[in-house]
Design goal:
alpha+beta, about 45% helix, elongated, binds zinc ion
């Protein structure tokens, strides 16, 4: 959504706000008392969500005429309902990890991606494939992927093992994870699992 600053002694600018409130997730409507202050060339604007009253900070660069920073960030792409239902831990941890990435909290991103991945794979195997938690508990990532039967998912997981290494969460001493590749692979995995769920539903209705 758009808003216009209107306080005295600040330039008048149109600036963008998220469409959904990053806190409560409702369609963003802002309370009518935007706070603004100007420290050249930046205009600092604080809006409040009408629904939950929480603040959204925008820093607007009056030289380049664009938003320099918005906090908190708008919610990442919503997860597919099939994935939310299968693995709420995955969704929660990945969401937090993406926020950490945007905020350049780099030490948290690699482990966050790794834990979110562990949850997605765990829930897929235990809930959808009925493999017992007891059996999986002490296995490493590569050994867990050997239970996979869907070839596409198996292929994606082989990439994931290459990107993350095979150990469970550990101190990432020397190796820096290629975060973009990791994120891409995790998204592919999530999409493939969602596709499997949706298609099996279609087949069972026939
Ligand atoms: Zn809100």
């Amino acid at each position: 959504m758009q808003n216009t600053s209107f306080s005295k002694n600040t330039p008048l600018v149109d600036y963008s706000l998220p469409n959904k409130c990053p806190y409560c997730g409702k369609d963003l409507a802002i309370a009518p008392d935007t706070q603004a202050s100007y420290v050249q060339p930046y205009l600092f604007l604080i809006d409040k969500c009408y629904h939950c009253s929480k603040p959204i900070l925008t820093v607007y660069d009056s030289v380049s005429n664009q938003t320099a920073l918005s906090f908190p960030l708008s919610s990442p792409q919503p997860f597919r309902p099939e994935i939310q239902e299968l693995s709420p831990h995955y969704c929660m941890i990945l969401k937090q990890t993406l926020v950490a990435k945007e905020l350049h909290l780099d030490s948290l991103v690699g482990p966050g991606l790794r834990i979110s991945l562990e949850w997605l794979l765990w829930d897929y195997l235990t809930k959808l494939k009925n493999i017992s938690a007891e059996e999986l508990k002490h296995k490493k990532l590569a050994a867990r992927t050997s239970y996979l039967q869907n070839d596409l998912i198996k292929l994606i997981c082989a990439d994931i093992v290459r990107i993350f290494g095979n150990d469970t969460i550990h101190i990432f001493s020397d190796d820096k994870i290629d975060e973009d590749a990791a994120l891409l692979a995790i998204n592919q995995l999530s999409e493939s699992i969602a596709a499997e769920i949706i298609l099996s539903r279609v087949h069972s209705q026939r």
